[in-house]
Amino acid sequence: MSLIDPADTFEGSGHNLSHLAHNAVSEMIRKRRLRGGEVIVEAKLADSLGISRTPLREALQRLEGEGLVVKSANRSFVVRHVDLAEYLQSLKVRELLEAEAASLAVGRIPPGLIRAARHEIEQLVAATSYHTDDHWHSDDTVHGLYVDACGNAVMGQMIHSLRVTTRLFEIARLADRLRPDSTEHLLILDALEAADAKRARRAAQTHIRSLYRFALANVS
Q1: What is the CATH number of domain 6-79?
Q2: CA 54 from centre of chain
Q3: 151-209: per-residue pLDDT in tens?
């Protein structure tokens, strides 16, 4: 069985195959088609993508640098596995950094971007069915607003790396986070829109702590 739809293969494409392979494998990991701890069989994956192993290996090396895959003892690439302990530890660091980033971002974000993020959340909550990709996209939008606007590139890169780690943690009941995530994200947006640094800091802290409590309560 092919790992992706035939329409998504790249054979004959004039695009950069390594770039396209990177995007495809990243999506497979995000959608759990390739799960944490799974060994990537390069020949099989290259065949399913319709490319040779050379651009695939280039893509995997890039994904290794991004923290999505690691090399095993026998030099095979393996999808990085994040356990509960690493997830919780990463959240603790995110709480410190994102609270500061939200505070620093006050007054730096165009109002139109805040309104757009709010509209995206409202559409997500109003949808008649749940879609994981839409949930993640809204999450990326809100966090990206204040992380990108915090004015500290080093802090932003650290948060991005930690978000890669926490995203890899497989939450079985992710749909149950839709309502609390949306409510907490709106509180962050409210604080940013009101240009209230203290509220923004508190709202970001509250959100990360909520994720921490949810994981403890729902992961055995």
Answers
A1: 1.10.10.10
A2: 27
A3: 999 999 999 999 999 999 977 688 899 999 999 999 999 999 999 999 999 999 999 99
Minimal CA–CA distance to 40: which of 14, 59, 16, 23? Answer: 59
Q: 84-218: what fold?
A: Four Helix Bundle (Hemerythrin (Met), subunit A) (1.20.120)
Domains 6-79 and 84-218 share a fold: no
**pLDDT value for 161:** 94
pTM score: 0.85
DSSP secondary structure letters along the chain: --SS-GGG--TT--S-HHHHHHHHHHHHHHTTSS-TT-B--HHHHHHHHTS-HHHHHHHHHHHHHTTSEEE-TTS-EEE----HHHHHHHHHHHHHHHHHHHHHHTTTS-HHHHHHHHHHHHHHHH-SS--HHHHHHHHHHHHHHHHHTSS-HHHHHHHHHHHHHHHHS--TTGGGGHHHHHHHHHHHHHHHHTT-HHHHHHHHHHHHHHHHHHHHHH--
3-state secondary structure 104-168: HHCCCCCHHHHHHHHHHHHHHHHCCCCCHHHHHHHHHHHHHHHHHCCCCHHHHHHHHHHHHHHHH
